[in-house]
TrEMBL record:
Organism: Lactobacillus taiwanensis
Keywords, comma-separated and alphabetical: Membrane, Transmembrane, Transmembrane helix
The protein, known as: DUF3021 domain-containing protein
InterPro entries from the UniProt entry: DUF3021
Chain ranges passing through the membrane: 7-30, 42-60, 67-86, 92-114
Length: 131
């Protein structure tokens, strides 16, 4: 796969996760806030920052250990999250930080489960060919 295709895949995947999280947060807070008006520039900023977070996934394809790749990914994700919050003039407090940590953990759990499912599928195919 060409590098630009892989970069586009990472970007689109990041945008997808970001969009889902953004919609869930809007849906959960709607009851507490009332009628929400979502500016188009906020949506654009969420998409771009989420896409850039997806780009950070390249760290897991380097020679870095998984631990260091994860640490750098977490730091980069937090920086981009903070930029998104600041550009949208959204409050950064302990609640938003808690949401960040929980969301990061949930996304990594989902990704790990998908990876494990793919590995099991590939292993079954290999056994089928060899058997």
């Amino acid at each position: 796969m060409k590098i630009w295709q892989k970069a586009l895949d990472y970007f689109v995947t990041g945008m997808g996760f970001g969009a889902i999280i953004y919609l869930v947060i809007l849906g959960v807070t709607y009851e507490n806030i009332g009628d929400l008006r979502v500016p188009l520039n906020s949506v654009f900023i969420v998409f771009v920052c989420s896409g850039l977070i997806g780009e950070l996934s390249f760290l897991f394809e380097t020679t870095l250990s998984y631990f260091w790749a994860l640490i750098l990914h977490l730091i980069g994700t937090f920086v981009l999250f903070s930029i998104m919050m600041l550009l949208n003039h959204w409050l950064i407090n302990w609640q938003t930080l808690l949401i960040f940590v929980i969301t990061y953990a949930i996304i990594w759990l989902i990704i790990r489960l998908i990876q494990e499912k793919d590995i099991r599928r590939i292993n079954r195919q290999i056994k089928k060919r060899n058997g």
